[in-house]
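Subject: sequence -> structure tokens, single chain

Hey, anyone have a minute? Need the predicted structure for the following. Not urgent.
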Amino acid sequence: MAEALAAPAPASAPLQKLDAAVIAPRPARRYRAAAFQVYVLCAAVAFVTLAVIAHSVAYFPIDLAITHAVQSYHGAAFDRLMYGISWTGFMPQVDVLAAVAILLLFALGLKWEAVAALFATAGVGVGTLVKLVVYRPRPSADVVHVLKQLPSSGFPSGHVLEATAFCGFLAFLGYSLLKPGLLRSTLLVAVGTFILLMGLSRIYEGQHWFSDVMGAYLFGSLWLALTIKVYRWGKPRFFVHQPVAPEIPAAPAVAPAA
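Reply:
Had a minute. Here:
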């Protein structure tokens, strides 16, 4: 995999200056930065609004309608897929999988990337505090099928939050550090599909409402944005001499221009 990583910038070139072939034109970068800032603002407002309402509303009519629609299909392969996806988000396996990914990054020489990935996992801790404040009940077996009743609050979904923040950051690294090609495209599609299926699986198992999942996607994307910000802030300050990918990666569409 190390061979697929984008070649580092020449030692004589300034760290802040990358090959023009991989940097978007200045107007495009300004547009991306503006779009990113608008999204962050809108996502933050939407999440806070949804959290406030969820504190006093057990579920919305659309929550019930979507759960009934999702649970109406019971194919054996679909069952296994949903249970398997959801299983990866429970402890201890979620901690083990995250630790393996972080250690793999470190072993590949991507030390600051590993540190930033560890920061991405902290979003779940903040999400747990939000759960305690909102304290919204999970779906009841009286109204939908519930695979197993869980005792904790339902808003936002911790499974979806971690998948969005942590796996989303891995996708960002793949986009930033891998050369364009089949490997990078496959990684991005696989991670994106996993993140989407995680939300679907939580609804299918009756352990979260649609609004719990959407709240997690919103908060997870905000934590992902913060993680990318921390990563890009720290890369030129702490780990510019690491043996693999020492240069500052070009900002993708979802990251603000430096």
